[in-house]
């Protein structure tokens, strides 16, 4: 249970739009899984989604934008230790290693195939990078081991109880947890976004996963409830059309 003011909230049943989500917002939600989360999907389909994420991130400047946001959070740390969770292709870690001369990166994902692909890439050879498998809900590191943990475009994959666990464990293992995820716009705008993607979803795996991501992304109020449940303080930024940025730290 999370307690917001005097109200107890059952987070497992909380809509992605938060406890006070409108009826229409509650309809824009799904239990369907993305290809990336399914075990019954051909590995080639999943790799195509990961490659498309890497390509769009580079092409549209998102990777650079996320790297800038992450580096701002460790601007006062001389040699930051950074953990990337759910790294997928490792593009963000690669950018952080390029831009920061001394940052040490632990680059992780829960999917063995993604970890193997990143380890076989330049990241596997990089003297300041360690590539390994890790579940963001059970971070294998001592308390405060990292200055920053980053979880980009991945938080919506998790149901509320696991999402809250990421906040709790991320803020335990790192001084700050940075979550960057898709915005959850008000329902009319959300409908427009879905309408532009839906015709392509049956044919393009990346768009299929994009539609489900859009329906599963959390609203700012839901993020606050999850942080409260995890006992963390949060600062929320962005979010209407730009990605949502959450900076969480353990409440001391
Ligand atoms: C949409 S991809 C995002 C990849 C990359 N971060 C990006 O910004 O393009 C989501 C990633 O989260 C990973 N993931 C899902 N659940 C996870 C968990 N519990 N722990 C760690 N990674 C997870 C998936 O394997 C996938 O690589």
* pLDDT averaged residue by residue: 96
Question: What structural class results from the helix and strand content?
Answer: alpha/beta
DSSP helix count?
10
* Main sheet: strands, sense, barrel: 7 strands, mixed
State the distance separating the first and last CA atoms.
20 Å
Strand arrangement within the widest β-sheet reads 5-4-3-6-7-9-8
Give helix and strand order, one letter per element, not per position: EEHHHEHEHHEEHEHHHEE
Globular, elongated, flat, extended or rod-shaped: what is the shape?
globular
Give the name of the CATH superfamily of the domain at 42-180 and 226-250.
Vaccinia Virus protein VP39
Radius of gyration, taken over Cα atoms and rounded to an integer in Å: 17 Å
CATH topology term of the domain at 42-180 and 226-250: Rossmann fold
Low-confidence stretches: none
Please state the second-level CATH architecture of the domain at 42-180 and 226-250.
3-Layer(aba) Sandwich
Description:
- GO terms for molecular function: methyltransferase activity.
- This is Class I SAM-dependent methyltransferase.
- It comes from Mycobacterium deserti.
- Keywords: Methyltransferase, Transferase.
- The protein is an alpha/beta fold.
- The protein has a domain of 164 residues: 3-Layer(aba) Sandwich (Rossmann fold).
- 41% of the residues lie in helices and 20% in strands.
- The chain contains 10 helices and 9 strands.
- The strands form 2 sheets. The chain has a 7-stranded mixed sheet with strand order 5-4-3-6-7-9-8, with helices on both faces. Strands 1-2 form a two-stranded antiparallel ribbon.
- Helix 4 links the parallel strand 3 and strand 4.
- Helix 3 packs across helix 4, helix 7 crosses helix 10 and helix 8 packs antiparallel against helix 9.
- The protein is globular and about 50 Å long.
- Bound molecules: S-adenosylmethionine.
